[in-house]
Predict the 3D structure of the following.
Amino acid sequence: MNENAPAKMGWGHLAARCPLRARNPEERHPIFDQIEKFLKNKTGVAGLIIIVFFTLAAILAPLLTPYDPNENALYEQLKPPVWAEGGAAKNLLGTDDMGRDLLTRMIYGARVSLTLGVVSVGIAFLVGSFLGAIAGYYKGWPDSLIMRIMDIILAFPHILLAIVIVAYLGPGLRNAMMAIGIINIPRFARIVRASVMEEYGKDYVTAARAVGAGNRRIIFNAILPNCLAPIIVQASLGFGAAILDAAGLSFLGLGAQPPMSEWGAMIAQGRQLILRAWWVMTLPGIAILFAVLGFNLFGDGLRDALDPRLRD
Amino acid sequence: MMKKFVMLVCIFVFLGAGSALAATPKKGGTPAAEPKKEAVAKPKKGGTLVYGRGGDSVGLDPAYETDGNSFMICDNIFEALVFYKDESTALEPGLATSWEISSDGLTYTFKLRKGVKFHDGTAFNADAVVFSIGRMMKNRNVKFSGKGWEIPKQERPPEYWVSMGMDDTVDAIEATDEYTVVFKLKKVQAPFIANMGMDFADIISPTAFIKDPKAFVRNPVGTGPFKFVKWVKDDRINLEANKDYWDKAKGPYLDKMVFRVIPENSVRFLELKAGNITMMDFPNPADIEMARKDPKLQIISQQGMNIGYLGFNHKKELWKNLKLRLAVAHAINRKAIVDKIYQGMGEVAKNCIPPTMWGYNKEVPGYDYDVALAKKYLAEAGYPEGKDLPEITLWSMPVARPYNPEGLKVGVAMLGDLGKIGIKARIVSYDWGTYLKRQREQGQDMDLFQLGWTGDNGDPDNFLAVLFDGMESAAVRTQWQNEDFHRLMGEGRTTVDQGKRAEIYKKAQQIMYDECPVLPIAHSIVVSPELKKVRNFKLHPTNSVRMKSVWLQ
C-alpha cells in the first residue's frame, strides 16, 4: 500500500504530532485542542478524578488493605464503622454479616465493577461499531437487516432483556457482563452508523478509494478513526450504565454470586440488615453512586469537548 | 436516562441512610418480656387474627399436598383420627375416641367420636373415614357400613401416602359399624398409629368431595375448628370460626383468620411491627433481637423437631471416598455458623435426629472442628492440601426454612472453611422448586448440598429412613448405599417394642457417624414473633400452625 497515504488515515499520525514535538500550533493535531478544552470543563475533570480514584483503588487493592475480601470471621460480624458508636480502627468502615471487612470488600468491588465495565462496554463497542460500520457503509439490505435487529433489541426494556439473557445463560458475573454487553450493542451501532454515513461522502474517503484501498481498509482505517469522538462519549457514558445494570442484576441474584464482592450483590446482602446495620447496604450504594456519577460527568465533559455541534 | 439512574441510586442511598438513622436502637429500651404464663386468664372470644407467612398454599386437600404452607391451613380446617398433643408428638384421641391394636400388630380398630359434623352439615362417621383414607389407596380394598360412595379416581398420586409406602402397609379399611373403623395391615408397621395423626390422614367430607373432586383442593370441607371462606391466590386465605365445633371447651375463640402471603422476611417483620399482621413465620434471625426489644411484640420459641444438614452426592465417584467426606466434616466450623448465622437459635447437631426424640444416641461423639485433622484426612484421601481436587460445587438453599434460616450465608461460611484446608468450592443456588427437583436428580454438577427436614410424626424412622436410606428408594435425597443401615431401618419399622426400636436407631446413628453420609449441621429453635395480645399460641414440633385454642386479649 501507499506509504504516504493521507495523514488522517490510520492511527500512527497522533504520535508524530504530539504537542511537545509540534512547535508550530498549526501542526498540532486537533485532539490536543480537545484535551485542552476538556480540561477547562470542571465537572468533566471532577468525573475524571473520580474515575482515576476508583481505578487506582482497583489496581492497588491488595496494597491498600491487609484483609482478604472473602475471608469470613463470623465472630467479628456487623462491627460498625469507625466513627459510629462501637466502631474500631481495625475495620474502618465496619464489617458485614460474615465478619468481612467492608472497606476491603468495597475496594475489591471496584475491581469487579471496573472489569465488568470494560468487558461489557468492550463487547458493545466492538460488536456495535462493527455492525454500525457495515450498515452505514454498505447501506441497502445489510443496513435494513442490521438496524431492524437493533431496533428490536432497543424495543425491550433493557434491564428486562438483560434478565432474560442471564436467565438463559445462567446466573453469574460472566454471563451478566455478556448480557449487558449485548443490550448495549444497538447504542453503539446507531451512533457509528450515523457517523459513517456522514463521513462516507467526504473527500478523504474518495481519495482513499482512488488510490485503490479496499472496502475493509476504507471502513476500518479511514472512516472509523474519524468517527471516534461520539463513540468515546458513548463508551464513557455506557460504562456508568453498565456498572449500574450489573449492580441491578447482582442485586436480583443474577449477577455476581456469593461470596464475590460486587457492589450490587453487597447491597442485596445488606438489604435484610437495613434496620440493624445500615452501613452494610449504604456504603456500597454510595460507591456505586460515585462511580456512576464519575463516568457520567466524564462522559458529559467529553461530549462538550468532542462534539463538533457543541463547538463554540 | 442516565441521570435518572443516578437519581435513583441517590434516592436509594439516602433512603437507606435515613431509615438507618431512624432505626438506631434507642438505649434503655425495655427488653420485651417473654410471654407470661397466664394459666388463670379466661379466654376471650372474638377478633380477627392475621397470620403473615412466606409463601402461599399449593392446595388444600391434605392427602395430596406435601408443603408446610398447605398444611398450615389444613391444620385448622381438618382433623385426623388421632391428635398430637399441643407441644409434642405424643398422641391423644382426636376424631377417634379410642383405638385397639391386635396382639399380632396387624389390625387396628378405631372407635369414633359421635355427634361430629363436617362444615357442610354431613355427619362424621366410619364411612367418612373409609372414604378419606381409602381414596389414597391404589387398590381400593374398602368396605362401607352404610351405602357409602363410589370413590372417584385419583387425579394425581397422593404423595405422602405413596412415598411412605402405605400401599405396601395397608391391606384393607373396613367400617364395621357406624362408629367403628378397622385397618388391616399387610405387615407390622410400628409408626402406623403416629402416621394416622399426620396431615395426609385428615378426614374430609365425602359429600363435598364427591360434588366436585377437582374443586376440593380450592374448597376444603372438614370437621376442624375453622371453616374455609375464600382464597385469593398468592395473597390471602380467609377462614372463619366453626360455630358448631365439637370440642367447645377448647375453642375456637377467634371469629376470623386471615393468612396473608408476604414473601420477604424483613417486610413481613415490618408489617408485624406496624401491627398490620398479628403474627408471622420465619423471621430473619437478625430481626429476632429487634423483636425482643419491641414492647409491642412477644416471642414464642420452641426446640424444633428438625435437622439441617450438608449432604454429599453419593452418586459421584469422588464422594465415595470416606476420608474426603471426613475432611469436609472436620473442616467446617459449625459452632460459628450456629452462633452467628442462626444467631444462637439452635444447637450444633451430632446426629441426624433431634436430641428431644426417643432413640437419640448421646454416645456419638460428633465431628469436632479441627483444621489439622481435616487436613490430615484430606491428605489420606489422596488430595494433600487440596492438590488435584477439582473445584467442587456447594449447593446452597435459596429460602429460609426452619432448619436453615439463611442457606446462602451458611454456604459462604462453609466456602471459607473449606478454603482453609485447600478445598476450592463455589456456591450454586437455584429457586427453591428447581433446587429440590435438581437435587433429586443427583447430577454430576452437584458435590455438596444443603438440605434439612422437619419431622412429621416424632418417629426416628421419619428422619433416618426417609432421608438417608438410599437403598430403600431412588426418591431418598441422600443416595447413600449401606447394607447395615438399610437392614436396621427395616428392623426398626417392623419391631413394635419401643425400647428395642430405640436400640436399633442408636446403632444406626453410630453407623452414620462412622460412615459420614452427611454432615449434620444444626437443630434449630423455631421462633414466632407475635403481637403481645396473642394468647395461647403454641409452636408445635412438626411446625403445624394450630389456632384452635388461640385467643386475642
Q: What stands out?
A: Chain A has one domain: 54-289. The longest helix of chain A spans residues 102-138. The domain at 54-289 of chain A is CATH 1.10.3720.10 (MetI-like fold).
